[in-house]
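Lab notebook, bench 4. Still working through the backlog of constructs that have no structural model yet. Next entry is a single chain of 560 residues. Request: give me the structure tokens for it.
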Amino acid sequence: MRNERIGDYLVSQGLINEEQLQKVLATQKESNGAKKFGDVVVELGFMSEVNFAKALAGKLRVQYVDLDTIDINTEAVQKVPEALARKHTVIAINVQGKRLTVATNDPVNFIVLEDIKVSTGMDTVPVLATTSAINKAIGKCYSMQNVDSVLDSVAGMGGDLGEMSQEDADSRDRVESAPIVKLATTIIENSYRADATDIHIEPFEKYTRIRIRVNGDLVELMNISSAVHSALTTRLKLISGMNIAEKRIPQDGRFTQVVDGTTLDVRVSSLPMVHGEKIVIRILSTGQIALRKITDLGMSEYNYQLFEHMLKVPQGVILVTGPTGSGKTTTLYAALGEIAKPNVNVVTVEDPVEKAIDGINQCQVNQKAGMTFAAALRSILRQDPDIVMVGEMRDAETADIGIRAAITGHLVLSTLHTNDAASTVVRLVDMGVAPYMVATSLIGVIAQRLVKRLCPECKRPRMSTAEETELMGIPAPIQIYEPGGCPSCNNTGYKGRTAIHEIIHCTSTVSTIIAAGGTKEEIEAAAKANGTKLLRDNASALVQAGESSIDELIRTTYTV
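Model written out:
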């Protein structure tokens, strides 16, 4: 059966059906052989990359390895030159005597294995891993070796920019190999691999500290000599299109960088400090990373059904609220992905456009040119839209136009910065929107927070105290978990985040209270009577299920 085609094998195993197989083959034929079968299956969403790799390993009788969970032998990595590893998408993961274990996405390609054998003088044993995992591992393993050499060469050149004159800029290779350029590239690569969302480059008198935000917390990445700071900021300002001569006022810019095959959209902000300019870099993954579906938002079954019900309403306002960095935009994009069909016109106005979505008209705010949220929204309403997404209702004018647009028959999605769902209604009235207009146009409000998940490898069980039991709103103490710390989670005790939601659906009872100018407490009481589960209830459910900790419950919901 070794000669059985992979498509037929997947069908025989019940992993895809015959109709899906024909669609994959047709798509592959259209690409004139440029795409592999596996890439097309994953692209069309019939299988995940990991599941396909496992199925392929089963068919070829080759071992499948998950590079994220195994320890890669650094001695083995050094046996294969970086250029060769990148050329063939392979990484050496173990060495025993004269045998080298190599992870590859194509274990039957003997030319590749022969190439490595000639280069290393060792027998190669192939194991199968996914392409993205191999690229990530190549970046991680080789760049960690590069960091020290880059820092040494940067320290050796003092504060000099590596003679980056205009003539050098024409010679791309010389620029790319300049130590300061390598340092800037390495910082962004290592931050992305650590799943960071932001990078802070902070100048102090004696040194410059570089920290990255992972899972909502700032973690120190490295310290560099303050002599290098000005060269590093100049490099980052140069590539992000800022004025490098102007160091007295804040500036904003952006650039793109390819890391491990993924194009990153990088936003840069500079702010003058006492000892130089502080640079904060926001890393945004582009459209190459799949858009989340509303089923992937981590909602409880009850909240999910409520949200789905709200999205079926043809006109009105749906608001998503929460502090900065609580995943509001992700929720809005997921909602758009659900309701944006080919027969409707969807227009968004954002600042900035975080992810380019196919089939949706996205408009970027530009304050300097007078393109504000309000101005853009006014023009959008003349563009015959069905669904409008406003990045944020920042002022009374934007809120007023958004609410009026909903009353005139559009579906409007937007965000607000408030603590919980009930206070959002009060905020809109405070902004000057008449209570009767809010009552007639509002479909519902979703308040959300991001909660860190406990690392499954090292979480430690214990019984809850009386105070914690009361916080969770349960009658008797139960077993809960607290963070430990292991290499898998970088000794933080947490791995990844999930969202908690509080959804108020504007039923006739709630609308009557809003129209009468009701307080936050009255709205909340009516919503609870309708079955709304508050943020605290959702966080408490996660703690009881052993997915999060009491510390996270207090951090995210203490004020609500």
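Notes after review: The mean pLDDT is 85. The CA atoms of residues 97 and 195 lie 35 Å apart. Flag for follow-up if needed.
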